[in-house]
């Protein structure tokens, strides 16, 4: 039997295209299990409970944190997000490749609790392109966009903390590189 796969963490600034890359990768390789995060934010149009996120109330999230049921969690733009620990560990034990798509704060927490995890930083082709992507979404208020840009500056500075950097110039290329790093292909 081959060795147990490592947990792979994909992180990078908001708007860099993490979810687009992951969605493409999972259409090509659906066997890669993507952890579904719990969040206190409201669903966006088209998002389904249990598919995109587990949408929970603040008191329920407090219980998850208090009981140590989250591998990592963070607060961003007034909402909290976290990764349910048990589901990740069960998939890894079963020998399945596991991918977490999380923010910098979460990636740092995973590094603390699971030092063997592989941390991959997804970088934008340029700062100007990142700004264009963040402002082009049209789903957030200007003050939220400004907070995201400020956070992106901090997140970009953390790139050296990661094991590998992939530059998102092509969704297909990055998805292929990510799969190779996860040893799925």
Supply database-style keywords:
185 residues, Rossmann fold, 5-stranded parallel sheet, 4-stranded mixed sheet, GMP kinase activity, transferase, Guanylate_kin-like_dom, kinase, Guanylate kinase
Overview of the structural elements:
The protein has about 180 residues and is an alpha/beta fold. It has a single domain (about 10-180), classed as 3-Layer(aba) Sandwich (Rossmann fold). It is about 40% helix and about 20% strand. It has seven helices and nine strands; from the N terminus they run βαβββαββαβαβααβα. The strands form two sheets. Strands 2-7-1-8-9 form a five-stranded parallel sheet, with helices on both faces. A hairpin with a 2-residue loop joins strand 5 and strand 6 (about 80-85). The longest helix is centred in the last third of the chain and has 16 residues, at about 140-155. The radius of gyration is 16 Å and the shape is globular. The two termini are about 15 Å apart. The model has no long low-confidence stretch (mean pLDDT about 90).
